[in-house]
Design brief:
heterodimer; A: 158 residues; alpha+beta; Ubiquitin-like (UB roll); 16% strand; B: alpha+beta; Enolase-like, domain 1; 3 domains; four-stranded antiparallel sheet; 12 helices; 14 strands; binds flavin-adenine dinucleotide; binds FE2/S2 (inorganic) cluster
Chain lengths: 158, 292
């Protein structure tokens, strides 16, 4: 069996070292090796977006990234969204708009939505729906999620 | 997933050596959006995964008005559609790169991986065929070039020999008065596999009223992507008209040899090839005339 590989990466701004098997996904590493269980597993094949993280500035499904690929890269997860001052406007908007029920999809939606608003502060509803097409939600019917993102967008501009 | 070894070569030579060292037990890794799903599901197995993303030639996206566009085999979709030269000169490629999977998938998925995965439904292959793309391959015996239409040999199979690597895809510089478009039919708006897809590329004369040449390629209607050569050739020298487009659509439908499966029936797929050929030709003509 191939041994464990030493990986040096940056997670939510913190230099982080871990050991993993080459076959382990970044999602498995985050959850099982590093104990960062905020990132969720839904499908494990790229379809649901529950495992969304930011890798070197782009959102990706961490179930389709190998942990070893994080070597030398910057990873941001749901754990890095809030700051010591409090929740991020996207997180607050999800709460205030009741944009979650069971919550399994929520970290992925929040990471993806924040990435959109960071990049396109004026994204319209159509753009938001298109951007979030890779995030599935079994509970809400999406409308409350989209309204929450529009609300967060307003508040971030104010 | 079974245990694997992982390596990150920094040059093409190192990558070829690594691929050759494990022979059929080696797989190249670009965005992993096909490979990791397949390794995990047991549809493919490998002892050695060769991550090709640290090799400069496999990441470059560069345009030259003489030699055309060079797309590094591992360049992810977003780098294709975010590239101003590609947007200006190859909107037909942007069509594909911006509809593969989701934003998350487009952050990783490459056109090279799409080609090497060689799915009949691959959305990037028909437009690359239509635009006359050529695959640049490196292997233990040196380099070779293969036209994209000759690359796939069966579902998930292609011309790559053990130890060989796709380095890049070259798309010739667009001729004056040319345009291309790719469309697929899926029952949803996003995130689905093509029931059928058509890529069309046309070159018009300077009046914009006559075809100089055309190339048409099809997705999801045969064991490989289909180059519908007769359909495109039928347009050469003809006036742009409903009749000439209809005849090309009829020939494209004849080139389709689909199966019935959970996504669609033979009849529906052949019908879709006709509809999508007409639409993509008309869109390509509009682009060739500079109307969009
Ligand atoms: C949720 C989801 C949605 C998707 N939607 C679409 C869609 O709408 N349309 C579509 O066409 N596809 C879709 N796909 C499939 C996949 O994303 C694409 O085929 C993608 O382009 C593959 O690129 P990749 O870089 O991820 O390839 P990888 O998975 O890294 O590689 C694919 C195959 O090619 C081989 N390979 C890769 N690079 C090289 C190289 N340089 N030399 C030799 N061999 C190589 C690999 O060994 C592997 O066998 C989807 C996948 C997922 C998970
Ligand atoms: S768990 Fe990664 S996309 Fe569903
Ligand atoms: S809140 Fe349950 S899946 Fe979205």
């Amino acid at each position: 069996m191939p041994g464990l590989v030493h990986v040096s990466t940056t997670i939510n701004g913190n230099p982080t070292d871990f050991l993993c098997e080459p076959r382990q996904s970044l999602l498995e590493v985050l959850r099982d090796v590093l104990g960062m269980t905020g990132t969720k597993e839904g499908c494990n094949d790229g379809n649901c977006g529950a495992c969304t993280v930011v890798l070197d500035g782009r959102i990706v499904t961490s179930c389709l990234v190998l942990g070893v690929e994080a070597q030398g890269k910057e990873v941001s997860t749901i754990e890095g969204v809030a700051s010591p001052e409090g929740l991020h406007p996207v997180q607050l908007a999800f709460l205030e708009n009741a944009a979650l029920q069971c919550g399994i999809c929520t970290p992925g939606f929040i990471v993806a939505s924040k990435a959109l608003l960071d990049r396109e502060p004026d994204a319209d509803e159509g753009r938001i729906r298109h951007w979030l097409a890779g995030n599935l939600c079994r509970c809400t019917g999406y409308d409350k999620i989209v309204r929450a993102v529009l609300d967060a967008e307003d508040k971030m501009k104010a | 997933m079974e245990a694997i070894e992982y390596t990150t070569p920094k040059t093409i030579a190192e990558a070829v050596q690594a691929m050759a060292s494990a022979g059929d037990r080696a797989r190249a890794l670009a965005g992993g959006t096909d490979l990791l799903v397949q390794l995990r599901g047991g549809r493919r197995s490998a002892d050695l995964v060769v991550d090709v993303k640290d090799i400069p030639e496999l990441n470059e996206v560069s345009y030259n008005p003489q030699s055309g566009l060079t797309i590094g085999a591992a360049a992810p979709c977003y780098q294709i559609y975010a590239n101003a030269d590609v947007a200006a000169n190859y909107p037909g490629l942007v069509d594909s790169a911006s509809l593969i999977g989701s934003i998350q998938i487009q952050g990783r998925a490459s056109l090279g991986g799409n080609l090497c995965n060689s799915a009949p439904s691959a959305d990037a292959i028909p437009p690359m065929i239509a635009m006359g793309g050529v695959a640049n391959i490196a292997g233990p015996n040196g380099t070779r070039q293969v036209a994209v239409e000759d690359f796939c040999t069966g579902p998930g199979r292609n011309v790559l020999e053990s130890g060989e690597l796709l380095v890049s895809i070259n798309i010739p510089a667009p001729a004056p008065n040319s345009g291309a478009n790719y469309l697929r039919f899926i029952p949803r708006n996003e995130m689905d596999i093509a029931v059928a897809g058509v890529g069309s590329a046309v070159v018009l004369d300077s009046s914009g009223q006559n075809f100089v040449s055309a190339r048409i390629a099809l997705a999801s209607v045969a064991p490989t992507p289909v180059f519908a050569r007769e359909a495109g050739d039928s347009l050469a020298g003809k006036a742009v008209s409903d009749e000439s487009i209809e005849e090309a659509a009829r020939l494209a439908m004849e080139a389709a040899v689909p199966i019935t499966d959970m996504r669609g029936t033979v009849r529906q797929r052949i019908h879709l090839v006709g509809v999508l050929t007409r639409r993509t030709l008309n869109n390509a003509i509009r682009r060739a005339r500079g109307e969009e």
